[in-house]
Amino acid sequence: MAKRIFGFFLLAITTFTVLLGCCSATVHKVGDSDGWAPKEDDNWTDREEFHVGDSLVFEYDRNFNDVTQVSGGLEYEFCDSSFPKAVYNTGHDVVTLKEPGSYYFITSNHTQCTSGQKLDVLVTHDPSSPIPPPSPSKILPSGNIYKVGDSKRWSVYDSEFYYQWSKEKQFHVGDSLLFEYNNEVNDVFEISGDLEFLYCDPISPVAVHKTGHDLIKLTEPGIHYFISSEPGHCEAGLKLQVVVGPTANVPKLSPLERLTRWLNSFTFNHH
Ligand SMILES: *[C@@H]1O[C@H](CO)[C@@H](O)[C@H](O)[C@H]1NC(C)=O
Ligand SMILES: *[C@@H]1O[C@H](CO)[C@@H](O)[C@H](O)[C@H]1NC(C)=O
């Protein structure tokens, strides 16, 4: 039986503040002078506050370690780096905390991770900041939510089904995709490229979703790829590619302008 090692060792952190334009952002140097290394807990999480816009600096020997951001507490607890959200490996990594939420960092060097080379931080909006730092989630309009596959949800139909489903729609930054499925037989892997999509390759996903009710916000323009990692499902057509355009700019029209447009539409359609 696997020996459960509770890595209640955390990392000491020194902080200093820099001024970035209008708003102050804190740079947290992970591990003091030792850098990114196993270290005993000194309760820094109780003292430190991490706000949107702050950054973490990781310094370490890149021959033996890296900084692997994982998506959940389980991966963090068990030092599981197989589905990273992001990997940094320059030896001097600056990670900006752009969104509120929990961030989990481990090293993919398993021995080091189980001895406590891991870090979790909770990031919140700075309540004392007079002007909240701009964050994508704040400036994005709350867009449309598209239920993937509509009433058919996320399941195997035929090879064209999700292609047709997405072809008819225009997605914009700020919209969300809702994947609904039975999570005992399916999952949603977001993958990064065309080739992975073509060959149904789930080996290095950008993100993994498994709740059976996953709401995924489209925060970046470009092409986004989603597949099922279940053997055979993606090959059978359970794959979705969406093209996301920039934020929809819906012009705000006055009632009179809307009325005028409406009347014009009649004039032009009426041959
Ligand atoms: C950390 O904080 C907890 C409760 O706040 C306390 O019981 C514990 O002794 C502290 N540990 C250290 C190393 O200061
Ligand atoms: C893990 O880290 C230790 C200590 O730095 C090092 O001796 C070992 O070679 C590393 N393992 C890998 C796989 O890099």
UniProtKB/TrEMBL annotation:
Source organism phylogeny: Eukaryota, Viridiplantae, Streptophyta, Embryophyta, Tracheophyta
Gene3D superfamilies named among the record's database cross-references: Cupredoxins - blue copper proteins
Gene Ontology annotations for the cellular component aspect, listed alphabetically: plasma membrane
InterPro entries, per the entry: Cupredoxin, Mavicyanin, Phytocyanin-like, Phytocyanin_dom
Record-linked Pfam families: Cu_bind_like
Protein name, per record: Copper ion binding protein
Organism domain of life: Eukaryota
Extent of the signal sequence: 1-25
Domain Phytocyanin: 26-125, 144-246
Keyword Electron transport annotated: no
Keywords: Disulfide bond, Glycoprotein, Signal
GO-annotated molecular function: electron transfer activity
Keyword Cell cycle: no
